[in-house]
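Researcher: We plan to redesign the surface later, but first we want a full-length starting point. Tokens attached.
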């Protein structure tokens, strides 16, 4: 929806600034600023986001307005020129009233919807199928807004939750914030409308599992994982087809992305066709939740770039800027860009300690950021647990082998004993009938010992 009911005075102010630029070749402002001037001068409709930006700019740029375009020395006053270019005071008053009205309408509409949060691991105990089903039942047919931030978890629980959302009779909207990874992406994509905040990440990969057992059991697990992978591929392909239509080699592309454990920014997810919209971070932004502790199990986590201090690391600097823009209101930058000369907008290159400062800012604001040493410690702990598991398995195998050896020996003795009793002959060592009875009883004592041994071994398993 767009809004074009701003006053004629605002249009005239924009035209005045444009005529000045045309007559004097003004170097004030930026391309975006003059684009906005043309929109206002022509009476074009402005989106809600543009209305908010216009109000934000003019409410700050007002201090730069001197009511004239030249000073006593004949130099341009860029603050005055760009203030008019954006519509001046008339546009500021209109944008303020319009922005507040839009916000009230949003809040009113949101109150008529039912909100469900899925934050953290998806499992049988946390964010389970049953718990989400209970929340959906409580919605009683209202439209549902879901907020999802999860590193994934149980495939079966996640698939069940996705089915619940996909089959809900009313409209559903899911917004991914912070991190949406693994099976959590399937839950996100199951909604009618799919969004991500501009600072969020989406990650897709092949399903995997910890398992142990014999060859048949391992083969069955591998077969199940293949089926799960095929199902995930179908879901991802359907999501892209819904938004972009059929594409050549789409399934092959997604298969490669899953195999490579691909991380997507919100913009990349939008361009690829996974989501419908990016939620801009504004004055009433959705806070970015801390990245999940489970990130240590993934291979290509973008957060690891926060520890990269190379100045020429464009991707690392990009993430640094996202963090800074999240924790600080960046509208002031927009003011500077539109009221100062282009050459005055040059910024110093990030210093080597800037990334460290950003990490500290995250921690100060309640976020959790793992250092490389902490991640290595988690990997080491997991390795020790696996080694302990394998050691315990080996001990169990040795116990079973020992029992099998005793059983084999006992079986041979039983065969010999039955043959002797049947023929009525002496024991292999000879002796009288009384001695035979005594030695037979002694053999019974061996049976009792064996029973105790078996019971002991079984209790150790």
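Model: Full-length starting sequence:
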């Amino acid at each position: 929806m767009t809004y074009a009911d701003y006053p004629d005075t605002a249009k005239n102010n924009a035209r005045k600034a444009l005529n000045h630029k045309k007559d004097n070749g003004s170097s004030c402002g930026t391309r975006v600023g003059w684009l906005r001037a043309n929109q206002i001068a022509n009476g074009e409709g402005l989106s809600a986001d543009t209305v908010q930006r216009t109000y934000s700019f003019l409410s700050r740029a007002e201090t730069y307005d001197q009511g004239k375009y030249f000073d006593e020395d004949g130099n341009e006053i860029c603050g005055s020129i760009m203030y008019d270019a954006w519509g001046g005071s008339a546009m500021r008053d209109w944008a303020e009233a319009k922005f507040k009205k839009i916000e009230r309408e949003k809040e009113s509409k949101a109150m008529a919807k039912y909100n469900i949060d899925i934050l953290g691991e998806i499992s049988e105990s946390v964010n389970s199928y049953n718990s989400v089903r209970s929340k959906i039942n409580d919605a009683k047919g209202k439209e549902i807004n879901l907020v999802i931030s999860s590193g994934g978890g149980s495939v079966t629980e996640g698939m069940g939750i996705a089915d619940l959302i996909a089959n809900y009779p009313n409209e559903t909207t899911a917004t991914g914030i912070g991190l949406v990874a693994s099976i959590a992406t399937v839950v996100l994509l199951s909604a009618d409308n799919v969004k991500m905040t501009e600072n969020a990440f989406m990650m897709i990969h092949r399903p995997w599992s910890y398992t142990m057992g014999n060859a048949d059991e391992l083969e069955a697990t591998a077969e199940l994982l293949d089926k799960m992978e095929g199902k995930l591929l179908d879901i991802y392909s359907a999501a892209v087809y819904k938004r972009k239509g059929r594409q050549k080699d789409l399934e092959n592309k997604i298969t490669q992305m899953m195999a490579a454990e691909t991380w997507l920014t919100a913009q990349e997810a939008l361009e690829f066709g996974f989501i419908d919209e990016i939620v801009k971070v504004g004055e009433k932004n959705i806070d970015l939740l801390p990245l999940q502790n489970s990130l240590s199990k993934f291979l290509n986590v973008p957060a690891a770039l926060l520890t990269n201090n190379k100045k020429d690391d464009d991707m690392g600097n990009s993430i640094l800027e996202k963090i800074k823009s999240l924790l600080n209101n960046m509208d002031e930058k927009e003011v500077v860009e539109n009221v100062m000369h282009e050459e005055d907008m040059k910024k110093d290159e990030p210093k080597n300690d800037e990334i460290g400062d950003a990490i500290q800012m995250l921690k100060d604001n309640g976020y959790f950021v793992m250092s490389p040493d902490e991640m290595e410690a988690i990997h080491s702990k997991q390795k020790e647990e696996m080694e302990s598991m394998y050691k315990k398995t080996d001990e169990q195998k040795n116990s079973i082998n020992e029992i099998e050896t005793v059983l084999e020996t006992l079986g041979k003795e039983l065969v010999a004993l039955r043959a002797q009793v049947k023929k009525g002959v002496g024991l292999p060592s000879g002796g009288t009938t009384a001695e035979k009875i005594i030695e037979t009883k002694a053999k019974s004592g061996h049976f009792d010992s064996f029973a105790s041994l078996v019971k002991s071994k079984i209790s150790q398993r």
